[in-house]
Design a protein that fits this description.
This is 4-diphosphocytidyl-2-C-methyl-D-erythritol kinase. This protein is α+β, with helices and mostly antiparallel strands. It contains eight helices and twelve strands. It folds into two domains: about 1-155, Ribosomal Protein S5, domain 2 (2-Layer Sandwich); about 165-275, 2-Layer Sandwich (Alpha-Beta Plaits). The protein has helices at about 55-60, 70-80, 105-120, 135-140, 175-185, 195-200, 220-235, 255-265, and strands at about 1-20, 25-45, 50-55, 90-95, 145-150, 150-155, 165-170, 210-215, 240, 250, 270-275, 280-285. α2 runs parallel beside α3 (about 105-120). The protein is globular, with a radius of gyration of 18 Å.
């Protein structure tokens, strides 16, 4: 079975506390977007085999492990162990989502493996957050208010069909380092996540006013600021970093203007593409 599996952005992302186990309490609005990896899963008699097709521009910023360290491999192992199954699978991943971008590129692959295995075997799993905090969201997709470490997911009004430019420079962000910097912030300005949820539910055309990301105050990357500046210059309604970085998304009213912005960013050697917000994580290919 082969699927396209979506990336996500955080329309808002706030950190509201730190838990005794070292994890952080989050408050966020997650949104799947039409930027995809392709994941193919085939059942075999035993073992887990993983192969990856990674563009050079992604591999150079963050080498992606193509072995048992990969979260997609871990997802297959998790699925088989939880269901007491002694078979195996062959997984192939074709990367289209940049790594170290804050877009859930690894978690969406893991969710796709769980989805494919579930469709092929009729089995399910619970506690998918044990694989990664973003995995449960990708099993839901769409637009959602997310709390806790990412496991508390409340779907909200559909925000699909909005035009975006997604861009990323060469610099990546270590999630661990980003959270350490968050812990060091003094009197930070928090995003108005609840106002964003209310706007999406009742006045979606005004939602962009409440986009925001606390991590922008903790992660200082010149490329992020440069990309945001260019997006606003080319008439984005809002431009915000996603996740703990380092990708940036800009919201546009006009697809032609978005295409112009993306081309200008590519001329500066940034990864940039035009896409839309989407309602589902997975698109079956075959």
């Amino acid at each position: 079975m082969r699927v396209k599996t979506a990336a996500k952005i955080n329309l808002a992302l706030d950190v509201t506390g730190k838990l005794p186990n070292g994890y952080h309490d989050l408050e966020s609005v997650f949104q799947t977007v039409g930027l995809y990896d392709e994941v193919e899963v085939e059942l075999i008699n035993s073992g887990i085999e993983l192969s990856c097709d990674v563009p050079d521009e992604f591999a150079s910023s963050d080498p992606i492990p193509c072995d048992e360290r990969n979260i997609a491999y871990k997802a297959a192992k998790f699925f088989f162990e939880q269901n007491g199954m002694d078979c195996g699978c062959r997984i192939h991943i074709k990367k289209g989502i940049p790594s170290q971008a804050g877009m859930g590129g690894g978690s969406t692959d893991a969710a796709a493996v769980l989805y494919c295995l579930g469709r092929m075997t009729g089995k399910t799993v619970s506690n998918s957050e044990k694989l990664g905090a973003d995995v449960p969201f990708f099993l839901t997709g769409g637009t959602a208010y997310v709390e806790g470490i990412g496991e508390k997911i409340t779907p909200i009004a559909d925000y699909s069909g909005r035009i975006l430019v997604v861009a990323k420079g060469k610099e990546g962000v270590s999630t661990a380092e980003a959270y350490r910097n968050i812990d060091s912030l003094t009197a930070p300005a928090h995003p108005e996540t609840h106002k964003l949820v209310k706007a999406i539910n009742s006045a979606p055309d005004t939602a962009y006013k409440y986009f925001g990301n606390l991590f922008e105050q903790a992660v200082e990357l010149p490329e992020v600021e440069d990309i945001k500046s260019d997006m606003l210059k080319y008439r984005a309604s809002s431009a915000v970093m996603t996740g703990s970085g380092s990708a940036v998304f800009g919201l546009f009213e006009d697809a032609a203007q978005a295409a112009v912005c993306a081309e200008k960013l590519r001329e500066k050697d940034y990864f940039a593409c035009v896409c839309e917000t989407v309602a589902d994580s997975f698109i079956a290919i075959d």
